[in-house]
Amino acid sequence: MKTLTLDIVTPNGSVYRESDAEIVVLQTTAGEMGVMYGHIPTVTPLKIGHVKVTRNGQSDYIAVTEGFAEVRREKVNILVQAAESADDIDLERAKSAKERATFYLDGDQDDTDLKRAERALKRAENRIEVAKYK
Ligand code: ATP
Questions:
Q1: How many CA atoms lie within 13 A of 69 on its CB side?
Q2: In this structure, which residue's CA is closest to atom 11 in ligand 1?
Q3: pLDDT band at 107 (very low <50, low <70, confident <90, very high)
Q4: ATP synthase F1 complex delta/epsilon subunit N-terminal domain: which residues (predicted)?
Q5: Is the shortest distance between the CB of 97 and ligand 1 below 6 Å?
Q6: How much of the chain exceeds pLDDT 70, in percent?
Q7: Which of 72, 78, 92, 107 has its C-alpha lying 20 to 30 A from 8's C-alpha?
Q8: What number does the ligand 1 atom closest to the CA of 10 have?
């Protein structure tokens, strides 16, 4: 079976790179998308969520923030602000971030702060979810 290379890149550098992915499942703004070797090339926006990679029949989960995926026949490049493999997620940090964001959202904030807090809450809740796959 031909496999894909998956590269997940952030401003801090590469977070995940494997060349033997059998299937990569992306959470795009339009829904879930499964990618295998030979997929039609495309670029798609990603929402805060996870990337699921199956290699040798085993799945890895990587939490990602908003960004883009570039799909080529033999490769998937993911460019996001932040990404962490389930094993690298600091659960306590994510819980604190969730508490902070919830506190802001419960307060009397202006629109800009609300939007920022909503995104922070989504990132924190996503990390808490993905950490379950440790
Ligand atoms: P926090 O308020 O805890 O910093 P955040 O959502 O504002 O959370 P980001 O701006 O998305 O954090 O990420 C900043 C950096 O910290 C990135 O490199 C990201 O991978 C890392 N990071 C954030 N939260 C966690 C976490 N819970 N576990 C591991 N790394 C994290």
A1: 33
A2: 82
A3: confident
A4: 4-83
A5: yes
A6: 100
A7: 92
A8: 18
Query: Phi, psi at residue 58, to the nearest 5°?
Result: -110, 145
Q: How far is the CA of 105 from the centre of ligand 1 (A)?
A: 19
The model scores a pTM over 0.90: yes
Least trusted range by pLDDT, from 49-58, 79-88, 108-117? 108-117
In the prediction, which pLDDT does 24 show?
98
Pocket test for ligand 1, best of 123, 126, 133 (most atoms within 8 A of CB): 123
- 94-97, long-range: CB < 8 A, 24+ apart: 94/124, 94/127, 94/128, 94/131, 95/124, 95/128, 97/123, 97/124, 97/127
CA distances (Å), 90 to each of 35, 38, 41, 122, in order?
29, 35, 34, 16
